[in-house]
Amino acid sequence: MNAARSALTLARFGRKAAGVPPQFRLLRQQSTYARPAAGVNPAYDESVKLIDAYATKKRAEAELAAKELAQAEGSGASCEHVSALKKKWFDLAVEADINDSEVLWNAKNGLFDLTRPVYLHLKEQAWRGRPLEILMQRLLQMYVLPDLLDPRDVGTPEAQLNLTLSGSPDLILEPGSIISPSDAREQLEIELVKFHEDSRLHTLVMVDLDEPLEAQQTFREQFHWVVANLPFSKSQSKANTADGLVLLPYIPPHPARGTPAHRYAVVLFEQGEGGLKRLEATNVSRDSVLRNFVAQHGLRPAGISFFRASWTEAVDDIYRDVLKQTPPNYGVPPTLRSDIGPDGRKINVYKNY
């Protein structure tokens, strides 16, 4: 898919015309802003002057707040005082640009420069609207919560976790959407949009909630991917596993034949001590239980999403090529028929009436 052409088509004619599948949403749309011409509408020109004057005033106040913050940090002020000054500077910086027509247009079209406070503010506003409602609804509706974690421990996620397939960075997987396992044969690309300034360490966990446990005729969790010590901040939202500690390498989704659609949850946990504590190398079993893993390492959920996948013929290739296993088959065994002989031919049965 040509991303630029699809984005422009989406902006004009909608998802179907742009060729965006229903299980995805486009991350970015049209990329050029045209400011209305001056001198055409006097009322518009006056409003622009007022907005510019207000922005200039707030930028000056933000600069003073930034100097005050730098002095406080340099003099060893208390964490509470520094946090209050950071919030003061952030709020003033947002006020300076919040009425800029180009900023609002960019935000509407998914173009967020997260190094600027105003875009961080608008991004959080946009996410805490409908997208967060849909995420929480599907997590509960499809029983990801509480099957995976206690909803009281998760609460309302504080960060936006976006999942994209390898090679399609502009197409975000919608929570709960169904994909082909072959589409996720390469490891997913992870983006965590944090709405705070400082960098914190996180642990990435991908879990299959519906791995069959044949002996007990039930299902269990299976860890597919665990990476610790991943740094995220407002300016570093993409996960680079090379920066982290890989505790379990990625294995693709492989729902076995005869099982219902599997739920694959991806959770990013903030590590202990406010995201400052590093995890040491440790043995992690793919048969671990996530709740126990979280309690053992003192992790706190920061972002969560999930998708689903069902068996296709490509899954058997994953078993053979990646897992080096014989593909299982949990289909219902054929019913034995008394009127069929060992040779497969029907036995003539005569009954007296």
UniProtKB/TrEMBL annotation:
CDD domains: PEBP_euk (cd00866). GO terms for cellular component: ribosome. It comes from Coemansia thaxteri. It comes from the Eukaryota. The keyword Ribosomal protein applies. Keywords: Ribonucleoprotein, Ribosomal protein. This is Mitochondrial 54S ribosomal protein YmL35. The keyword Cell division does not apply. The lineage of its organism: Eukaryota, Fungi, Fungi incertae sedis, Zoopagomycota, Kickxellomycotina. It holds the Pfam family PBP.
